[in-house]
Structure prediction request, 427 residues.
Amino acid sequence: MNVELIQQEVPPAPDDTDAPQRVLIVDDSRLQRKILSSSVKRWGFEVHEAGSAEEAIEICKHTLPDLVLSDWMMPGMNGLEFCDAFRKVSQDRYGYFILLTSKSEKAEIAMGLEAGADDFVTKPVDANELRARIAAGERILHMQRELTEKNRLITDTLDELQRVYDSLDSDLQEAKKLQQSLVRERYKSFETGDLSLMLRSSGHVGGDLVGFFPAQVGHLGLFSIDVSGHGISSALMTARLAGYLSAAAPDQNVALRRCDDGTYAFLPPEDVIETLNDLVLDEMETEHYFTLLLADVDLNTGHVRMAQAGHPHPAVQRRDGSIEQDGPGGFPVGLMSGISFTQFEAQLNPGDRILLLSDGVTECPRDDGDMLQESGLEDMMRDLSDVTGPAFFEALLWRLTEFAGEATFPDDVSGILFEYRGPDQPK
Prediction:
């Protein structure tokens, strides 16, 4: 085989530190290698030479070239076989492979491309053409390495974001445990009735809170809160509000007044909500507001006095299954100063129960956009009239899942169920 380099004046390679620098020339003819090498060196490249494909592979294992100029027809391993071996050696760093050949048939060129070659230069080699082919290879390699670097930066950024997400997720899991711990008891039995609580956030943490506290002798305080928004800031506000209605620290509970004999009396619920409204506006630097239903249950008589601040109406289910939903509605807490709230009452008879729910239940949407609303809640309560205690909330959530068509809800869901037995009924 005879390769002739047609010598012409070709400008040197541009001074670009990002451009490929190492060129490997593979040819079994020493003279042909020298002819090619002299021009490529003059263009500013670092040149390595190999007399066979086998020798070239060993060079690649130690010093990987940026570009390869390889003869097609060589004894032993030919140029196509060497191209395939080169691709396996240079998996992590792409090298541009140019075949030198006298073959010009389309089928043979297609064979070379399928073997992994990037370009061809026909013999005799024209210096201008070779320089142009190398320049094209430089541009492609430059773009490829820019893309590789950007992909690396993206991968590193995604890895860092994943680490941040994992850290946040871990913190949110802990926050969820802390928020759930605010509802320490989900079920409690009293002499005259049973109390069940349910709290389910739409995300890790949410803005709903339910709870109870002992009031004056024979009285039980209940509260159902729904803070605007979702997430951490809403959850932090629920924690603050839990302190204002604390069962563990009655002296800090704004719903209780300490009497001279050391006992505590339940203040009028409407006054308590007014106090909370002033506290939020005066002491909390927040844009959040919340709805609230506060109830004082007389465990002996079944009498319930309540105040409502924008929260859904309480649902009283009578022993015969009939349901009553009523209340003044009221204005949410924390939106405006000088708001007054109205007390209203309900009388529970033995076998009756009262249900306090957040609007995550009645405003739960299904696929067509329709919400459950109060009428849908009444249907569910009638269907579950024989289900009591924590099992009632489990069944209610199951029915809500069927209604929504999915196991997750767009809003937090919470509730309190108090089932009144009466003083003369056994537990």
Summary: The first strand starts at residue 5 and ends at 6. Residues 6-17 have pLDDT under 50 and may be disordered. The chain has ten helices and 20 strands.
